[in-house]
Amino acid sequence: MSTTHFGFKSVDEAEKASHVKGVFDSVAPKYDLMNDLMSMGLHRLWKAYTVTVANLKEGDQVLDIAGGTGDLALAFAKKVGKSGRVVHTDINEAMLRTGRDRLLDEGVVLPTVVCDAEKLPFPDHHFDLVSVAFGLRNMTHKDVALAEMNRVLKPGGKLLVLEFSKVAKPLEKAYDWYSFKVLPKLGELVAGDSASYQYLAESIRMHPGQEELKALMKANGFGHVDYHNLTGGLVALHVGIKC
Ligand SMILES: C[S@@+](CC[C@H](N)C(=O)[O-])C[C@H]1O[C@@H](n2cnc3c(N)ncnc32)[C@H](O)[C@@H]1O
Fold first, then answer.
1. 25 lines ligand 1 (CB under 6 A)
2. Taking residues 209-225, what's their average pLDDT?
3. CA 221, chain centre distance (Å)
4. Considering the entire predicted model, what is its pTM?
5. How far, in Å, is the centroid of ligand 1 from the Cα of 170?
6. Which of 158, 163, 181, 207 is at 20 to 30 A from 84, Cα to Cα?
7. By C-alpha distance, which of 34, 38, 4, 2 is closest to 19?
8. 72-101 pLDDT tens trace
9. In whole angstroms, what is the distance from residue 197 CA to residue 6 CA?
10. Which candidate, 228, 241, 204, 233, places its Cα nearest to that of 50?
11. What digits encode the pLDDT tens for the residues 170-180?
12. How many A from CA of 179 to the centre of ligand 1?
Protein backbone atom coordinates (compact mmCIF):
# COMPACT_ATOMS: atom_id res chain seq x y z
CA MET A 1 0.00 0.00 0.00
CA SER A 2 1.43 3.41 -0.99
CA THR A 3 0.67 6.50 1.00
CA THR A 4 0.53 10.14 0.06
CA HIS A 5 -0.29 13.38 1.81
CA PHE A 6 -3.68 14.93 2.28
CA GLY A 7 -2.68 18.23 3.84
CA PHE A 8 -0.36 17.23 6.75
CA LYS A 9 -2.02 13.81 7.10
CA SER A 10 -0.68 10.67 5.50
CA VAL A 11 -3.39 8.70 3.66
CA ASP A 12 -3.61 5.67 1.40
CA GLU A 13 -2.97 6.84 -2.19
CA ALA A 14 -6.20 5.23 -3.33
CA GLU A 15 -8.16 7.34 -0.83
CA LYS A 16 -6.77 10.82 -1.47
CA ALA A 17 -9.19 11.61 -4.34
CA SER A 18 -12.21 10.84 -2.18
CA HIS A 19 -10.89 13.12 0.61
CA VAL A 20 -10.36 15.90 -1.96
CA LYS A 21 -13.87 15.26 -3.31
CA GLY A 22 -15.24 15.74 0.22
CA VAL A 23 -13.52 19.13 0.48
CA PHE A 24 -14.86 20.46 -2.83
CA ASP A 25 -18.36 18.98 -2.38
CA SER A 26 -18.48 20.93 0.86
CA VAL A 27 -17.05 24.26 -0.37
CA ALA A 28 -18.72 24.43 -3.84
CA PRO A 29 -21.76 26.57 -2.87
CA LYS A 30 -19.63 29.24 -1.13
CA TYR A 31 -16.46 28.80 -3.24
CA ASP A 32 -16.55 32.13 -5.12
CA LEU A 33 -17.44 34.19 -2.05
CA MET A 34 -14.70 32.50 0.01
CA ASN A 35 -12.15 33.07 -2.78
CA ASP A 36 -12.85 36.79 -2.76
CA LEU A 37 -12.78 37.01 1.03
CA MET A 38 -9.70 34.85 1.61
CA SER A 39 -7.55 36.49 -1.05
CA MET A 40 -9.07 39.96 -0.56
CA GLY A 41 -9.83 39.92 -4.26
CA LEU A 42 -6.25 39.11 -5.28
CA HIS A 43 -7.25 35.87 -7.05
CA ARG A 44 -8.92 38.07 -9.70
CA LEU A 45 -5.60 39.79 -10.42
CA TRP A 46 -3.68 36.48 -10.53
CA LYS A 47 -6.22 35.10 -13.00
CA ALA A 48 -6.21 38.28 -15.10
CA TYR A 49 -2.42 37.99 -15.32
CA THR A 50 -2.79 34.35 -16.40
CA VAL A 51 -5.18 35.39 -19.17
CA THR A 52 -2.63 37.98 -20.38
CA VAL A 53 0.18 35.42 -20.43
CA ALA A 54 -2.11 32.95 -22.27
CA ASN A 55 -2.14 35.42 -25.16
CA LEU A 56 -4.97 33.58 -26.88
CA LYS A 57 -6.24 34.39 -30.34
CA GLU A 58 -9.52 33.77 -32.16
CA GLY A 59 -9.92 30.13 -33.10
CA ASP A 60 -7.65 28.70 -30.36
CA GLN A 61 -8.51 25.36 -28.72
CA VAL A 62 -8.27 25.55 -24.93
CA LEU A 63 -8.61 23.00 -22.12
CA ASP A 64 -9.22 24.30 -18.59
CA ILE A 65 -8.46 21.53 -16.10
CA ALA A 66 -9.79 21.62 -12.51
CA GLY A 67 -11.78 24.57 -13.83
CA GLY A 68 -14.17 24.63 -10.87
CA THR A 69 -16.55 27.58 -10.97
CA GLY A 70 -15.15 28.71 -14.32
CA ASP A 71 -13.25 32.01 -13.84
CA LEU A 72 -10.53 31.15 -16.37
CA ALA A 73 -12.82 29.27 -18.77
CA LEU A 74 -15.10 32.32 -18.97
CA ALA A 75 -12.22 34.75 -19.57
CA PHE A 76 -10.64 32.45 -22.19
CA ALA A 77 -13.98 32.00 -24.00
CA LYS A 78 -14.11 35.76 -24.57
CA LYS A 79 -10.68 35.61 -26.25
CA VAL A 80 -11.08 32.62 -28.60
CA GLY A 81 -14.39 33.81 -30.12
CA LYS A 82 -16.91 31.69 -31.95
CA SER A 83 -14.32 29.89 -34.08
CA GLY A 84 -12.40 28.72 -30.99
CA ARG A 85 -13.36 26.39 -28.18
CA VAL A 86 -12.80 26.28 -24.42
CA VAL A 87 -13.51 22.97 -22.71
CA HIS A 88 -14.36 23.47 -19.04
CA THR A 89 -13.47 20.39 -16.97
CA ASP A 90 -13.20 19.25 -13.36
CA ILE A 91 -13.24 15.96 -11.47
CA ASN A 92 -15.90 17.33 -9.11
CA GLU A 93 -19.50 17.54 -10.31
CA ALA A 94 -20.61 20.02 -7.62
CA MET A 95 -17.87 22.50 -8.57
CA LEU A 96 -18.48 22.08 -12.28
CA ARG A 97 -22.25 22.43 -11.92
CA THR A 98 -21.84 25.65 -9.89
CA GLY A 99 -19.51 26.94 -12.63
CA ARG A 100 -21.78 25.89 -15.48
CA ASP A 101 -24.79 27.63 -13.88
CA ARG A 102 -22.75 30.77 -13.38
CA LEU A 103 -21.53 30.78 -17.01
CA LEU A 104 -25.09 30.18 -18.26
CA ASP A 105 -26.21 33.23 -16.23
CA GLU A 106 -23.58 35.20 -18.17
CA GLY A 107 -24.93 33.82 -21.47
CA VAL A 108 -21.89 31.59 -22.08
CA VAL A 109 -22.33 27.91 -22.96
CA LEU A 110 -19.16 25.83 -22.96
CA PRO A 111 -18.54 22.12 -23.37
CA THR A 112 -18.33 20.85 -19.80
CA VAL A 113 -16.68 17.52 -18.95
CA VAL A 114 -16.30 15.74 -15.62
CA CYS A 115 -12.85 14.16 -15.81
CA ASP A 116 -9.74 13.33 -13.84
CA ALA A 117 -6.62 15.25 -14.92
CA GLU A 118 -4.69 12.00 -14.54
CA LYS A 119 -6.78 10.34 -17.31
CA LEU A 120 -7.83 13.01 -19.78
CA PRO A 121 -10.47 11.86 -22.29
CA PHE A 122 -8.99 13.92 -25.16
CA PRO A 123 -6.83 12.99 -28.16
CA ASP A 124 -3.09 13.60 -28.46
CA HIS A 125 -1.79 16.95 -29.83
CA HIS A 126 -5.18 18.66 -29.73
CA PHE A 127 -5.07 21.90 -27.69
CA ASP A 128 -3.19 25.19 -28.16
CA LEU A 129 -3.41 25.94 -24.45
CA VAL A 130 -4.03 23.90 -21.30
CA SER A 131 -4.59 25.66 -17.96
CA VAL A 132 -4.86 24.47 -14.38
CA ALA A 133 -5.51 27.07 -11.67
CA PHE A 134 -5.21 26.06 -8.01
CA GLY A 135 -5.91 22.45 -8.99
CA LEU A 136 -2.56 20.65 -9.35
CA ARG A 137 -1.97 20.81 -5.58
CA ASN A 138 -4.95 18.52 -5.01
CA MET A 139 -3.96 15.79 -7.45
CA THR A 140 -2.61 12.48 -6.20
CA HIS A 141 -0.04 11.88 -8.99
CA LYS A 142 1.07 15.31 -10.19
CA ASP A 143 3.62 13.72 -12.56
CA VAL A 144 0.90 11.66 -14.29
CA ALA A 145 -1.38 14.70 -14.58
CA LEU A 146 1.43 16.84 -16.06
CA ALA A 147 2.29 14.10 -18.57
CA GLU A 148 -1.39 13.96 -19.59
CA MET A 149 -1.48 17.75 -20.03
CA ASN A 150 1.60 17.46 -22.23
CA ARG A 151 0.05 14.66 -24.29
CA VAL A 152 -3.09 16.62 -25.23
CA LEU A 153 -1.16 19.78 -26.19
CA LYS A 154 -0.13 20.46 -29.78
CA PRO A 155 3.64 20.71 -30.30
CA GLY A 156 4.48 24.34 -29.42
CA GLY A 157 1.37 24.48 -27.19
CA LYS A 158 1.43 26.09 -23.77
CA LEU A 159 0.60 24.83 -20.27
CA LEU A 160 -0.22 27.42 -17.60
CA VAL A 161 -0.11 26.25 -13.99
CA LEU A 162 -1.36 28.89 -11.55
CA GLU A 163 -0.81 27.64 -8.01
CA PHE A 164 0.11 28.64 -4.48
CA SER A 165 3.87 28.48 -4.06
CA LYS A 166 6.68 29.28 -1.62
CA VAL A 167 6.26 32.76 -0.26
CA ALA A 168 9.30 35.08 0.17
CA LYS A 169 11.03 34.68 3.58
CA PRO A 170 10.04 38.08 5.06
CA LEU A 171 6.36 37.27 4.50
CA GLU A 172 6.50 33.76 5.99
CA LYS A 173 5.47 34.55 9.59
CA ALA A 174 2.51 36.72 8.70
CA TYR A 175 1.43 34.24 6.05
CA ASP A 176 1.55 31.31 8.51
CA TRP A 177 -0.47 33.26 11.05
CA TYR A 178 -3.07 34.17 8.42
CA SER A 179 -3.22 30.63 6.99
CA PHE A 180 -3.51 28.67 10.22
CA LYS A 181 -5.28 31.15 12.53
CA VAL A 182 -7.51 33.24 10.27
CA LEU A 183 -8.43 31.00 7.29
CA PRO A 184 -10.06 28.12 9.22
CA LYS A 185 -12.06 30.64 11.32
CA LEU A 186 -13.21 32.45 8.17
CA GLY A 187 -14.20 29.07 6.69
CA GLU A 188 -16.19 28.25 9.82
CA LEU A 189 -17.92 31.64 9.85
CA VAL A 190 -18.81 31.92 6.17
CA ALA A 191 -19.07 28.34 4.92
CA GLY A 192 -19.64 26.46 8.19
CA ASP A 193 -16.53 24.37 7.44
CA SER A 194 -13.16 25.01 9.09
CA ALA A 195 -11.62 21.63 8.16
CA SER A 196 -11.62 22.33 4.40
CA TYR A 197 -9.80 25.61 4.95
CA GLN A 198 -7.32 23.97 7.31
CA TYR A 199 -6.69 21.49 4.45
CA LEU A 200 -6.18 24.44 2.06
CA ALA A 201 -3.45 25.90 4.31
CA GLU A 202 -1.78 22.51 4.80
CA SER A 203 -1.93 21.47 1.14
CA ILE A 204 -0.19 24.72 0.15
CA ARG A 205 2.70 23.87 2.48
CA MET A 206 2.98 20.35 0.98
CA HIS A 207 2.98 21.53 -2.66
CA PRO A 208 6.32 21.72 -4.53
CA GLY A 209 7.97 25.15 -4.56
CA GLN A 210 8.79 27.15 -7.69
CA GLU A 211 11.99 25.35 -8.72
CA GLU A 212 10.68 21.90 -7.75
CA LEU A 213 7.56 22.32 -9.88
CA LYS A 214 9.63 23.62 -12.78
CA ALA A 215 11.78 20.46 -12.59
CA LEU A 216 8.65 18.26 -12.40
CA MET A 217 7.21 19.90 -15.51
CA LYS A 218 10.50 19.42 -17.36
CA ALA A 219 10.62 15.77 -16.31
CA ASN A 220 7.13 15.28 -17.73
CA GLY A 221 7.70 16.51 -21.25
CA PHE A 222 7.89 20.31 -21.19
CA GLY A 223 11.01 21.40 -23.12
CA HIS A 224 10.90 24.96 -21.84
CA VAL A 225 9.55 26.00 -18.44
CA ASP A 226 9.57 29.39 -16.77
CA TYR A 227 7.72 30.85 -13.80
CA HIS A 228 6.47 34.23 -12.68
CA ASN A 229 6.21 34.92 -8.93
CA LEU A 230 3.08 36.83 -7.99
CA THR A 231 2.48 38.67 -4.69
CA GLY A 232 5.89 37.77 -3.24
CA GLY A 233 5.71 34.12 -4.31
CA LEU A 234 2.40 33.50 -2.55
CA VAL A 235 1.34 32.31 -5.97
CA ALA A 236 3.41 31.37 -9.03
CA LEU A 237 2.42 31.07 -12.65
CA HIS A 238 4.44 28.31 -14.35
CA VAL A 239 4.51 28.38 -18.13
CA GLY A 240 5.52 25.17 -19.90
CA ILE A 241 6.01 24.82 -23.65
CA LYS A 242 5.66 21.46 -25.35
CA CYS A 243 8.64 21.47 -27.71
C1 LIG B 1 -9.29 25.31 -5.60
S2 LIG B 1 -10.30 24.68 -6.88
C3 LIG B 1 -9.84 25.66 -8.27
C4 LIG B 1 -10.98 26.03 -9.17
C5 LIG B 1 -10.66 27.05 -10.27
N6 LIG B 1 -9.67 26.54 -11.18
C7 LIG B 1 -10.22 28.35 -9.69
O8 LIG B 1 -9.07 28.72 -9.89
O9 LIG B 1 -11.02 29.02 -9.04
C10 LIG B 1 -9.49 23.15 -7.21
C11 LIG B 1 -10.25 22.26 -8.15
O12 LIG B 1 -9.43 21.14 -8.50
C13 LIG B 1 -10.30 20.06 -8.76
N14 LIG B 1 -9.54 18.79 -8.81
C15 LIG B 1 -8.92 18.16 -7.77
N16 LIG B 1 -8.34 17.02 -8.19
C17 LIG B 1 -8.57 16.94 -9.52
C18 LIG B 1 -8.22 15.98 -10.53
N19 LIG B 1 -7.51 14.88 -10.23
N20 LIG B 1 -8.63 16.20 -11.80
C21 LIG B 1 -9.36 17.30 -12.10
N22 LIG B 1 -9.72 18.24 -11.19
C23 LIG B 1 -9.33 18.07 -9.92
C24 LIG B 1 -11.30 20.15 -7.63
O25 LIG B 1 -12.45 19.40 -7.85
C26 LIG B 1 -11.54 21.67 -7.57
O27 LIG B 1 -12.64 22.05 -8.31
1. no
2. 98
3. 19
4. 0.98
5. 29
6. 163
7. 4
8. 999 999 999 999 999 999 999 999 999 999
9. 13
10. 228
11. 999 999 999 99
12. 20
